[in-house]
Every structure is written in C-alpha cells, then in structure tokens.
C-alpha cells in the first residue's frame, strides 16, 4: 500500500461535473490500495473574483482580512469533493488549514509553510478515509488564517506529501505534463518525460506557471517525488504509478536514464510579461551610487531582477536600467522619487511593455554558445535586446512585449525543440 498526494488545480475543480470526475479519479487510486490525501484549488476564476472584491472594498485592504476572504474558495471545493467522494461510496473528510493544522509564518497573503501536524491526518488515513485538504491556506501563530501567494496550492500539496512521507505527489492540471515551453503558445512544444528540480525551479521562477516556484524548491529540499499530469482524461487513462506525466527528478537520476548525446542542450523556454523596466538617467559615476538606488528598494521589500549599468558618459555620469515586478512599479517609483536627491539622477523613465524570455537547461553547464545562439536568433528577427541576465543553467533577455510569442517560437525552433509533425 502506498501513500500518495493528489493535487487538483482550478480548471480541474471548475464545477460539480469536474469535481465528480476528480472524485472518480481519486476512487481509482483508493481501489488500487493506496492511502490518499487530496489537495484542491478553488474553482478556476474564483480566487481572482475574491481578490477583486477585496480591492473593491478598499484599495488599502488589510492583508489579514484579504486572507480570510481569498482562502474561502478552497474551503468550498474541499467540502464539495468530500461530498462527491462520499456519494460514490468513498469515505472522505475535509481538513481545513487550521484544523490539521498547517502552521505558517505570519506574512499574510504570502505566508510560508512551517510545519504540518500529521496526527489527525494519519488517523483519518488509517480509518480508511480520503483526507481532502484545501490548498493555498494555513494558520499563523494566534490562529489567524493565512494564504501562501497565488498558485500556492502546489506548495500545499508538496508540503503535505513531505509531512506524510508520501511516495509521490501527483499534480493534476489542464496539460498532461511539463512541456519545452507553454503549449498554449507553441503548439509544437514537446512534452518532457523528466525534468530536473533545478531546471523546473528556474523555469517556474522565470514564468512557467505550471508549478509554483516555491513548490519546486520545497520538493527539491524534501526530496518529494513530483509528477505533473492531466486530470482531463477518461476512465481508461493509465494509472498514475505508470508515470504518464512529467516526473521532476534529481540530476543523477536524469543522467542515469538518458545518454548524454540524447540530451537537449536546452530543456525549456519560458516567458514572463509581469516585469517593468526602470531607467535612471545620468546617475553620478562614483562608488556607492548603485547602492543608493537599490538599498531603498530592498528596504521596501521590492525584488530587483535584471540590472544593466551603461558605460559612463564623459560627464562622469552613467545610466542604470533594471526590472522590478510590474505589481511593484508604483511603489518603486515612489521610493525612487523620494530618494532622487540622495541618488542624484537626472531623469527616471519606466516601461511596462516588456517581456523576459528565458532559456533553461542543465546541458548549458558543459556547452558554450547557448547565449550567442539566442542573441543571433533574436537579432535575425529584428528583436532588440534591452537587458540580459544569466545563471549557470539559464539565459534571460528583456525584449519589447509585442515580440513575446515570436521570440519564444523562433528560439524553440533554433534550439531544436520543435516536435516532429506528422506529414
Ligand atoms: P492549475 O489551475 O492546475 O494549477 P495552472 O494554470 O496554474 O494550472 O498551470 C497550468 C498551465 O501552465 C497550463 O495550462 C499552461 O498554459 C501553463 N504552462 C506554462 N508553461 C508551461 C510548460 N512549460 N509546460 C506546461 N504548461 C505550461
Ligand atoms: N486558488 C489559488 C490561486 O488561484 C491557489 C491555487 O490555485 O494554487 O492562486
Ligand atoms: Mg497552478
């Protein structure tokens, strides 16, 4: 008998018919002899609707009350799935974040999971029940409800899997695995049988929202076996333990199974339209100038991503360009406006019509030329590069937003990632 976690995302839980299909899928795993905990998202669109209500009530809403409101979507779907399971003869019980409990930090609206008490969960599983756990929520010291940041149900699922020492954490979604790029943008994207934790971490952090970044970091740290697979399949779909989806694996496991020559240099390409570019013109070219820009931003909790400092002008000044999350742009402008005299820049310009395109692959550790292929390919299409960052297994460029889809498509072809199409 294996212990498994099954996580179902918003589109998989969108409406009673879908929830019935999820219940049937869970029943199959129970009948195969598994002990099952299910982690669920709110119905698709529901969290957006709830966030909208908070904003409408007050643009300066209290994050504690925001969490009370937005966590409710998952309360509804966990209860409904327990009902749907009971209706087909599967004993089931829901366990809200505060009932287990799932302890989190008190960073309301973006809390981090600390520990999960498994006593109640273990007893429920031992009684032969399916435990249904709403994703995205937990409880902070002082018994206030918290949420984990958008897309957080993936992280709930991995954390529950680690706590209950599950054999696998199956993430059921609306695509049948992790692809070389978003299959909704590039129809010729290929499904990957395996991807390493590190690659998935990079891909998620640069925009591949199929998994929340934190969930991948946690899986890597806790060595949780994660599979991404589709919930949109019929009763004759292969069982999850035959691994029909994409497995997230350690690098050793990957190299063991795939001969070096068969490995692609690049594993995947991601895009992110949620960054904004800021340029400070004519900053004094002297020690401490850059610190005077980034220190106040860091103090305000704003994460700066890409940074370019231009060659100094003959006047002893330089231009500094960087990106921040688009949602933090108003606050960034405010902080930089207040620090104008200290920094000593002449002009501040910003642009939200930018996109970050990233290529990721562990193969680039041992191969040169990845970045140059990227720059040449984009150059040939007349796509201008505004900023660049790299890591050991990733190259990212900032381009004009209108070219996003074109850039992803041409790079996908340039790195030989396109799937064969039947003639
Ligand atoms: P869920 O509601 O199940 O959590 P999400 O919408 O959060 O689902 O994530 C699934 C979506 O991720 C897919 O519909 C797909 O458009 C998108 N996606 C982005 N990049 C990738 C990728 N490389 N592989 C697969 N899906 C991707
Ligand atoms: N319902 C939450 C969201 O939409 C959490 C999740 O689905 O992962 O962000
Ligand atoms: Mg998701």
From TrEMBL:
Pathway recorded for this protein: Amino-acid biosynthesis; L-lysine biosynthesis via DAP pathway; (S)-tetrahydrodipicolinate from L-aspartate: step 1/4; Amino-acid biosynthesis; L-methionine biosynthesis via de novo pathway; L-homoserine from L-aspartate: step 1/3; Amino-acid biosynthesis; L-threonine biosynthesis; L-threonine from L-aspartate: step 1/5
First-tier enzyme category under EC: transferase
The name this protein goes by in its record: Aspartokinase
Substrates-to-products reaction catalysed: L-aspartate + ATP = 4-phospho-L-aspartate + ADP
PANTHER family on file: ASPARTATE KINASE, ASPARTOKINASE
Stated family: Belongs to the aspartokinase family.
Residue intervals of the ACT domain: 278-354, 359-423
Signal sequence extent: none
EC number: 2.7.2.4
UniProt keywords, alphabetically: Amino-acid biosynthesis, ATP-binding, Kinase, Lysine biosynthesis, Nucleotide-binding, Transferase
């Amino acid at each position: 008998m294996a212990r498994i976690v099954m996580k179902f995302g918003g589109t998989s839980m969108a409406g009673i018919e879908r929830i019935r299909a999820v219940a049937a899928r869970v029943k199959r795993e129970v009948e195969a002899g598994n002990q099952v905990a299910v982690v669920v998202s709110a119905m698709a669109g529901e969290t957006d609707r709830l966030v909208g209500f908070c904003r409408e009530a007050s643009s300066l809403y209290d994050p504690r009350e925001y969490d009370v409101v937005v966590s409710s979507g998952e309360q509804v779907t966990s209860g409904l799935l327990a009902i749907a399971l009971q209706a087909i003869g599967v004993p089931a019980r829901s366990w809200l974040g505060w009932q287990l409990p799932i302890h989190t930090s008190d960073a309301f609206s973006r809390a981090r999971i600390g520990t999960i008490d498994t006593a109640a969960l273990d007893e429920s599983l031992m009684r032969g029940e399916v435990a249904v756990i709403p994703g995205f929520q937990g409880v902070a010291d002082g018994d206030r409800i918290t949420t984990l940041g958008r897309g957080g149900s993936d992280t709930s699922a991995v954390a529950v899997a680690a706590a209950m020492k599950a054999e696998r954490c199956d993430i059921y979604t609306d695509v049948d695995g992790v692809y070389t790029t978003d299959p909704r943008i590039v129809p010729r994207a290929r499904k990957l049988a395996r991807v390493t934790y590190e690659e998935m971490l990079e891909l998620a952090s640069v925009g591949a929202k199929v998994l929340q970044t934190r969930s991948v970091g946690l899986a890597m740290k806790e060595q949780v076996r994660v599979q991404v697979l589709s919930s949109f399949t019929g009763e004759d779909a292969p069982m999850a333990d035959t691994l029909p989806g994409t497995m997230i694996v350690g690098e050793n496991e990957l190299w063991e199974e795939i001969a070096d020559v068969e490995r692609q240099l690049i594993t995947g390409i991601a895009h992110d339209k949620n960054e904004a570019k800021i340029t400070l013109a004519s900053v004094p070219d002297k020690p401490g100038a850059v610190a005077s820009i980034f220190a106040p931003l860091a103090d305000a909790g704003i994460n700066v991503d890409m940074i370019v400092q231009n060659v100094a002008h003959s006047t002893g000044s330089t231009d500094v360009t960087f990106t921040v999350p688009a949602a933090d742009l108003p606050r960034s402008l405010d902080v930089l406006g207040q620090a104008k005299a200290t920094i000593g820049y002449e002009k501040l310009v910003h642009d939200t019509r930018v996109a970050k395109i990233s290529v990721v692959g562990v193969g680039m550790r041992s191969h040169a030329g990845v970045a140059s292929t990227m720059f040449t390919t984009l150059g040939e299409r007349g796509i201008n590069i505004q900023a660049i960052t790299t890591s050991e297994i990733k190259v990212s460029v900032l381009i004009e937003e209108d070219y996003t889809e074109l850039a992803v498509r041409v790079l996908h072809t340039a790195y030989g990632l396109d799937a064969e199409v039947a003639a």
